[in-house]
Specification:
Strand content: 15-25%
Helix content: 40-55%
Number of domains: 1
CATH topology: Protocatechuate 4,5-dioxygenase, Chain B
Structural class: alpha/beta
Order of helices and strands: EHEHEEEEHEHHEHEEHHHEHE
Shape: globular
Number of helices: 10
Radius of gyration: 18 Å
Length: 300
């Protein structure tokens, strides 16, 4: 967060060149490929306040993330666009009790830097809804992989990255942010970053054993529990289900997003697409795996 007279801080990418291309030209080409890969085939809400996106490597889940950002773009065609994207990230390695903001002024992407909405960040800190903890963001990829899509589709938008642990504080944060947005002044969209069931021996989660039937259960039953709760907009149940069923690695991010959308008057979500890494591998590479990770694209 910028202090008068202080040096501007830029958060450098940690998974550029791994989860997505690290060079300008190749990054641009893959974003366009992701945007073209999946058409928006369902009628969209008249307005979109929030969305849930996956955060695996773009090869696997980039097209689903692109669907959500495309839907937001389409819903705002007659307006001046988005001022700020609040990106709620998964807490993969952060175990602090409070949602964590970064102290950077910009996030670097292969397409150029994106400014952080430090005014909004300061407001959340003053209201004791979040803390500044840049170490929570240092090794976290779940927010970073979304930022190039925003830079490409919404070049003037700012971001507010927040790592959100899966606790009741996620819901409090989302509700408060919804209230802040309602007060007006800016067009703000909330994005929650989570993958779904991580199934297989590598992930230490095999309640149905291994093989095709077990992977089908992960996709059609366990993932669907999360998706249905998200569509019904039940943030508390999302947290509970994730703790019991291991069907969301970013349950706090999802709960905050749903809570914010409810606070903004949304009554239900819309599923744009649902797939998993095994389906993607079969389609793109002609092979399958004994493990699978689920991905969903949802808007509110």
């Amino acid at each position: 967060m910028q202090v008068i007279g202080a040096k501007m801080l830029t958060r450098k990418p940690i998974v550029a060149g791994q989860f997505y291309p690290g060079q300008h030209g190749s990054c641009l080409a893959e974003i366009e490929e992701c945007l073209e890969a999946r058409a928006l085939s369902v009628p969209l809400p008249e307005t979109i306040a929030a969305g849930i996106v996956p955060h695996a490597g773009w090869t696997f889940s980039g097209s689903l993330a692109a669907m959500v950002f495309s839907a937001v773009k389409k819903s705002l065609e007659s307006s001046n666009g988005v001022n700020t994207f609040i990106i709620f990230g998964a807490a993969h390695s952060y175990f602090g009790p409070m949602p964590a903001l970064d102290n950077s002024d910009f996030w670097e992407t292969p397409l150029g830097d994106v400014a952080v909405d430090n005014d909004l960040a300061e407001r959340l800190v003053n209201q004791k809804l979040a803390v500044i903890n840049s170490s929570a963001h240092r090794g976290e990829h779940s927010i970073e992989v979304q930022v190039p899509f925003i830079k490409y589709l919404f070049p003037d938008a700012q971001i507010l990255p927040i790592v959100v642990p899966p606790s009741d504080k996620a819901i409090v944060l989302g509700q408060a942010i919804g209230d802040i947005i309602t007060q007006g002044g800016k067009t703000v969209i909330c994005i929650g970053s989570t993958d779904l069931t991580h199934y297989g021996p590598r992930y230490g989660f095999v309640p149905m054993g291994t093989g095709p039937e077990a992977l089908r259960w992960a996709n059609e039953v366990n993932d669907r529990k999360f998706i249905d709760l998200a569509l019904k907009m039940e943030p508390q149940a999302i947290l509970k289900s994730a703790a019991e069923n291991y069907n969301a690695c970013g349950a706090g991010a999802a709960a905050a997003t749903v809570a914010a959308a409810k606070s903004l008057g949304k009554a239900k979500g819309l599923l744009l697409a649902h797939t998993n890494s095994n389906e993607v591998m079969l389609y793109k590479m002609g092979t399958t795996s004994t493990e699978s990770v689920g991905y969903a694209a949802i808007v509110f």
